[in-house]
């Protein structure tokens, strides 16, 4: 099972992980990314190109499933305006053993940040905004999985 969703609405990480927990494997690992307060940032806005974004996420999930023998995987990524403190992304992996579940989960979030076409804008308390540039540290982390 590979479940990929791109949506504007919020999600409940605990509820979303239930199908992975029901797969009778030995481990479920997950990561939930939250919009953090960074200086005067009040919210972020994420844009994407739907067909390209979904295809990129699905390809990464299929690669993770193949590399680590996953039983299942879920990736939910929000788009649109996201307030500080709200969830942005959920990555969940189910595997027979914890090492595979952890590694696949980390691979997915590390590669998602660099390989999937999302564009992020920070919205500040005064209403101004600025596009966020790619970080060399994210590129280095993603490259470590090659």
Can you walk through the features of this model?
This protein is α+β, with helices and mostly antiparallel strands and 146 residues long. The protein has one domain: Aldehyde Oxidoreductase, domain 3, CATH 3.90.1170.40. The chain is 37% helix and 36% strand. The chain contains four helices and eight strands, in the order βαββαβββαββα. The chain has helices at residues 13-21, 50-68, 98-115, 136-143; strands at residues 2-7, 27-34, 41-48, 72-78, 80-83, 87-95, 118-124, 129-131. The strands form two sheets. The chain has a four-stranded mixed sheet, with helices on both faces. A four-stranded antiparallel sheet has the order 5-3-7-8. Helix 2 runs antiparallel to helix 3 (98-115) and helix 3 packs across helix 4. It is globular, with a radius of gyration of 15 Å.
Sheet having the most strands? 4 strands, mixed
Could you name the CATH homologous superfamily?
Answer: Molybdopterin biosynthesis MoaE subunit
Distance between the termini: 24 Å
Number of helices: 4
The largest sheet has its strands arranged as 1-4-6-2
Mean of all residue-level pLDDT scores: 94
- The H-and-E topology, N to C, reads as EHEEHEEEHEEH
User: Strand pairing plus helix content: what structural class?
Assistant: alpha+beta
Overall body shape: globular
CATH architecture: Alpha-Beta Complex
In CATH's first tier, which class applies?
Answer: Alpha Beta
**Tally of extended strands?**
8
CATH topology category name: Aldehyde Oxidoreductase, domain 3
Q: How many discrete structural domains?
A: 1
């Amino acid at each position: 099972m590979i479940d990929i969703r791109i949506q504007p609405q919020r999600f409940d990480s605990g509820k979303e992980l239930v199908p992975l927990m029901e797969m009778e494997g030995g481990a479920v690992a997950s990561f939930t990314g939250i919009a953090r307060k960074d200086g005067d940032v009040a919210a972020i806005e994420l844009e994407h190109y739907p067909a390209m974004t979904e295809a990129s996420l699905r390809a990464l999930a299929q690669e993770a499933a193949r590399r680590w023998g996953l039983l299942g995987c879920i990736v939910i990524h929000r788009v649109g305006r996201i307030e500080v403190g709200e969830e942005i992304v959920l990555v969940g992996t189910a595997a027979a053993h914890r090492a595979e579940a952890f590694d696949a989960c980390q691979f997915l979030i590390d590669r998602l940040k660099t390989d999937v076409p999302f564009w992020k804008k920070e919205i500040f308390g005064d209403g101004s905004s600025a596009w966020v540039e790619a970080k060399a540290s994210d590129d280095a982390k993603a490259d470590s999985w090659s």
